[in-house]
């Protein structure tokens, strides 16, 4: 072959390859899917017809949850507990659970129609709240990658951890998706140590400094922006980047240092959906869209009549980062209803027509496919000094509130949930005590009266 025809051929190939790269405009993602429970959410996701589906962890519930026992030989709850609430399953059991998840008819349809990628969280990693100390991580990594149909020769099968990156779309319409592994290398909770570990940090730095993409989605199993623990403690704490403040700062600094714009976080884990935003970290607003509860949800664990109380508590718990707007189905702007949640629509076809002005929609949808939370974001907003970013944070504009950390709230606001709960418990305890005293007094009076009679 002479040079010119070779050149023509390679040009032809390039054209063919470029023509094949359709822009990605519909992405769905989710987390927390109990393989043993019905999964009607796939109908809504199929209806949305995503080109890409991203698993954000707890893709199966792999570990064994033991009953909540307060008394007896094996106590799993309370300060006096002596045995673990969660224990890992055998390899065979993990395989069975993955097989069940993979065979779900709704998910099978997604697998045929869309690209499916993802990472894991604690329950599919193999143990509730586990980190780098967990000894079954090597074998469980293999099972998880089998579930995702990772090719046998993929480098991802040789590395320590399931982190990965993908780039989709033609030039100028590139979407890069990075999925992090927040388990394999994570130091113990409360250590303020590392989440990603050195190797993954080096890799991430490389990925973020690499070729430009118009949008960079970073998937983390646990929430990045919201630090709910700061307002739910000391009642209870959640896992999140907020619990590792040094590591979180490092992440924001890396994004700023690599001058990566268009970064959006997606996360799962918490069994409810919310959209949060932090404006004072990298020079433009960092959004974190949490889609959690493909199957598991906060409200599912309480009886139906009590669900409005759960919603009320959500609304009452302060949050400085949550995006509150008119699109929310509930006043709290969280969504944790039974069997509900989300595909997440990210970007409309419109987006690619005019990258700089069009609005891109971040949405959380329910089991019927209806939007329950949403916000419009334009790409120009996700750039340093872009519209509605730095500008707003320096004026007393509406976005001002997205700069205050939860821990900077005045104590009376920050701890109002704990105060309410403790107060309620105290009142109930006093009422019960009062009843008991009343009863005792009445009985003694009666006994005395009977004797006198
Ligand atoms: C998963 O669903 C099954 C069937 O509904 C239920 O028995 C089990 O407790 C659930 N697992 C978790 C972790 O909620
Ligand atoms: C998040 O909240 C925890 C618990 O109150 C606190 O220790 C931590 O410093 C907070 N992190 C950030 C980034 O504010
Ligand atoms: C986004 O903006 C469009 C046009 O202004 C509006 O119709 C739509 O409801 C908005 N969506 C959300 C989720 O805010």
UniProtKB/TrEMBL annotation:
The keyword Signal applies. Pfam families: PhoD (PF09423). Residues 28-280 form the PhoD-like phosphatase metallophosphatase domain. Keywords: Membrane, Signal, Transmembrane, Transmembrane helix. The chain crosses the membrane at residues 419-448. CDD domains: MPP_PhoD. It comes from the Eukaryota. Residues 1-18 form the signal peptide. InterPro entries: Metallo-depent_PP-like (IPR029052), PhoD-like_MPP (IPR018946), PhoD-like_sf (IPR038607). This is Calcineurin-like metallo-phosphoesterase superfamily protein. It comes from Arabidopsis thaliana.
């Amino acid at each position: 072959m002479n040079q010119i025809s070779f050149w023509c051929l390679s040009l032809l190939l390039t054209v063919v390859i470029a023509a094949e790269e359709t822009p990605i405009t519909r992405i769905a993602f989710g987390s927390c899917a109990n393989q043993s429970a019905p999964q009607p959410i796939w109908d809504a996701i199929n209806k949305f017809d995503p080109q890409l589906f991203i698993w954000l962890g707890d893709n199966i519930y792999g570990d064994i949850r033991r009953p909540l026992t307060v008394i007896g030989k094996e106590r799993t709850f309370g300060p006096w507990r002596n045995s673990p609430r969660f224990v890992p399953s055998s390899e065979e059991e993990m395989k069975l659970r993955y097989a069940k998840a993979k065979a779900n008819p709704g998910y099978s349809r997604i697998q045929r129609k869309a690209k499916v990628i993802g990472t894991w969280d604690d329950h599919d990693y193999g143990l509730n709240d586990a980190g780098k100390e967990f000894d079954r991580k090597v074998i469980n990594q293999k099972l998880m990658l089998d579930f995702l149909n990772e090719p046998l020769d993929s480098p991802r099968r040789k590395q320590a951890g399931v982190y990965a990156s993908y780039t989709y779309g033609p030039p100028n319409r590139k979407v890069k998706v990075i999925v992090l592994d927040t388990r394999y290398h994570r130091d113990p909770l409360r250590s303020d140590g590392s989440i990603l570990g050195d190797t993954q940090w080096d890799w991430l730095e490389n990925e973020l400094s690499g070729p430009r993409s118009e949008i960079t989605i970073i998937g983390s199993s646990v929430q990045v922006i919201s630090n709910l623990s700061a307002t739910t403690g000391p009642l209870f704490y959640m896992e999140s980047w907020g619990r590792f403040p040094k590591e979180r700062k490092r992440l924001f600094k890396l994004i700023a240092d690599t001058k990566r714009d268009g970064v959006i976080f997606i996360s799962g884990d918490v069994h409810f959906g919310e959209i949060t935003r932090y404006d004072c970290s990298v020079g433009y607003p960092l959004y974190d869209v949490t889609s959690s509860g493909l199957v598991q949800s906060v409200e599912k664990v309480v009886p139906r009549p009590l669900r409005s109380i759960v919603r009320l508590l959500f609304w009452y718990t302060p949050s400085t980062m949550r995006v509150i707007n008119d699109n929310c189905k509930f006043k709290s702007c969280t969504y944790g209803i039974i069997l509900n949640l989300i595909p997440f629509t990210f970007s409309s076809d419109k987006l690619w027509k005019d990258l700089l002005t069009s609005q891109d929609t971040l949405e959380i949808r329910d089991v019927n496919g209806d939007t329950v939370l949403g916000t419009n974001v334009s790409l120009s907003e996700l750039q340093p000094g872009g519209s509605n970013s730095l500008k707003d944070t320096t004026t007393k504009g509406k976005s001002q509130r997205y700069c205050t950390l939860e821990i900077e709230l005045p104590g009376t606001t920050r701890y109002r949930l704990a105060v309410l709960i403790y107060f309620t418990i105290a009142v109930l305890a006093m009422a019960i005590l009062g009843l008991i005293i009343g009863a005792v007094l009445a009985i003694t009076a009666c006994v005395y009266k009977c004797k006198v009679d």
